Each structure stands twice: as structure tokens, then as C-alpha cells.
Amino acid sequence: MMDQATRTRKIRIGGVEVGGGAPVVVQSMCATRTVDIDKTIAQTHQLARAGAGIVRIALDNAKEVPALKEIRAQTPGVTLSVDLQENYRIAGKVAPYVDKIRYNPGHLHHIEKSKTIPQKVKWLVDIARDHDLAIRIGVNCGSVAPAFLEKYPGDQLTAIVESAAYHCALMEEYGFDRFVVSLKDSDPAKVLEANRRMTERRPDVPLHLGVTEAGLPPDGIIKTRLAFEKLLAQHIGDTIRVSLTLPNERKHEEVVVGHQIIADVKAGRFISVPDFGTGMNIISCPSCSRVENEKFVELTQQVKELTTYASQYRITIAVMGCRVNGPGETDDADLGLWCGPTTVNLKKKDRKVGNFTYEDVLPRLRSEVDRLIAERSPAMN
User: Fold this and answer.
1) What is the spatial distance between Cα 338 and Cα 93, in angstroms, rounded to a whole number?
2) How big is the CA angle at 325 (ends 320 and 327), to the nearest 5 degrees?
3) 360-379 tens-digit pLDDT
């Protein structure tokens, strides 16, 4: 493992140490439905065997807590993190069965609107302290807290950093320091800049690195490396997750790639892809337990194959697998598809084009790509 600078404080997450010169920890997230207990247990072990120091599981509501309890009972040697999704109120119910909770500052305003953000964060801190848990403050490009978007109009990057810094201050106001921060975007350049700014702002806070919705291999690996290599080489980043669109049986490849990146940086091996990102850009989220139809992964592969003819055109297509990230994180793409249980919502920027079956959406996508090419030619060539 590469040695990290000791400027970040060291925190404990279950049996794992993060920051303060500890080796970079690779983590991943289960793609199985949490209520599918046997499959989730199997995948938790699959990821741990591949070298995941932390395995994350997502819960949407309290009805899934009994499943988490059984998963915890059958994975005693694995450090578990739980993603609170858009329902921070379940933190108290899941706390006995995990080692870390992850919340998104951009999702706190949705629920219990009569309570302030500081009140909600204090409640989370009290739960973490009472149950010996760590916390991740996870700020995502597609779900930045509205208050910060309003405060920094047209400057999403600053909004992301300021949101993260504000929540760090809240943690410390309540006397809690066992937290890490992530600042994620699907654009490697933005991930680089956000984490560099955060490091300058708060060099003591451990950082979790991720390029969200990196997409299918090999492009998703390249996007991730473009950000991670530069940051890790500057000793920025204490734990990482490679977010790839993969079928369940290949989910452990995220972990393998993460360890490979760390080893390559330590050995001074870096990639050079001068023309990468100048043509078709397909963004797709990692398959996870939020995916409502496993056809999502196959659809992403079909979108890539379908658009091969337009590879030289600068068009961004986002394919999202769930309702949590789907609506918001397709808004900036030229064309966006977010997938439900039986249908796919097709968007053009933030405007909905229509709702289609998984089979019918591809021909319509092709016509929309053709329309974009016609509208922008010859400028796009």
C-alpha cells in the first residue's frame, strides 16, 4: 500500500483505520437488494475476499432493517457501512448493525421540514456516538443541498465544497470527529478540483475519493484513474471506491481495480489518454441495491453499442439505475435515461421526452442522438 501523509486525522471504522498515515482503504457497495438476504451476504463476502476494507449496504426504509440485522449476524468479520439514502430517520434503527453511517447533506431537507439541518445532524451525531460509529458526509454533484446552490448560483463546485465544509463544522460543534468526507462528480476534472479545494480548506479531514457514475469498463476505469492518480500522488485521499456499471457477479472488479490503481501510483505508473473525453461520453451509475431492474446494466451496454456510430461527437448520455439519483443526475446530460422497474424515463437535459419500455427506448434514443447531431453540425465535428 502507498503511504499517506499524516496530516489527516486517523479515525476508526469498525476494525479499519482510515487517515493519519494508514494505508488507503478500498471499499465497494453491494449491488444486490438488501432484502435478498442470502444474495447480499454472498456479495458482502465476495467484496471482502477481493480486498474491500469496507462494504456499504443501502437501506430505503425501516422495513429493510430485519434483513440488515441478519446480514450483520452472518458477516461478523466485515466492516459494514450503511447508506441512509433519502431517509436519515432510519439511522437509529440501523445503528446497532453497522460500523459507519453515510448521509448526503443534499437529502436532509426532504424530510421533517420543521427541523433545521443542524438539528438533524446533531441527531445523527448523537446516534453515531452512542453506537460507536463513524460517519461519512457524502456530497454528490447531482444532489447538492438547495441552500448552497442558491448561495453560489452557477458555481456548483463551490457549492459542493462549501456544503461539505459546513457539515464538518457542524460535526465539530457537536464534539464529534470520527467522520470522513466525500465530494463526488461524474467529471474527473471536477473531482480533482473539489478534493484539492477541500484539502486546502480542511487538511485534517480524511477524504473518501470517488468518481460517481464512472460507467462501463474500460472507460469507467480510465475516468476514475484520471482523478485518483493525481490525487493519490499528492497524498490526497484516505479511502477510495471505484464506481463501475457491472453485473452482480462481477461487482468485485471494483475492488480489484481500486487496489491496482493504488499499486500503480505507488510504483509511479500513470496512464496517458490525451484525447479521452473529447467525443461521446456515456455516464452510468454503478449497479447497486437501489437499482429497480437488473436490465439497467444490459441497457447501459446497449446504449454504448448503439451510439458507436456517433463516437466522434461531443454528446453526453447519462444512464441511471434508480429514482434516487436518476432524476437529478441526468439534468446536465444532453440525453438522460433513468430506469424504473418496468419503464425508462428519457430526458433531454432537464426536460422529459417520454416514458418507454426497456425495448422501445433504444430506437427513440437513436432518433434523439441523430437530432442532436443534425442540430449541432458542423460544430460538433
Assistant:
1) 30
2) 80
3) 999 999 999 999 999 887 65
Q: Rounded distance, CA 229 to CA 192, Å?
A: 10
Whole-angstrom distance, CA of residue 28 vs CA of residue 252: 8
For 3, the 3-state DSSP assignment is: coil
pLDDT at 165 > cutoff 80? yes
What secondary structure does DSSP assign to 37-80, as a single string?
HHHHHHHHHHHHHHT-SEEEEE--SGGGHHHHHHHHHT-TTS-E
For 190-230, how does the pLDDT look when each residue is reduced to its tens digit (9 = 90+)? 999 999 999 999 999 999 999 988 899 999 999 999 999 99
Angstrom distance (rounded) from CA 37 to CA 70:
7
DSSP line for 100-115: EEEE-GGGGGGS-TTS
Q: How do residues 310-343 score in pLDDT, each as one tens digit? A: 999 999 999 988 766 667 678 889 999 988 889 9
> Which pLDDT does position 331 carry in this prediction?
83
DSSP H helix total and E strand total for the chain: 12, 15
Domains along the sequence of the chain with CATH: 11-267 (3.20.20.20), 281-376 (3.30.413.10)
Q: Max Cα separation, the chain?
A: 62
Q: Which grid coordinates are listed for 288?
A: 447497486
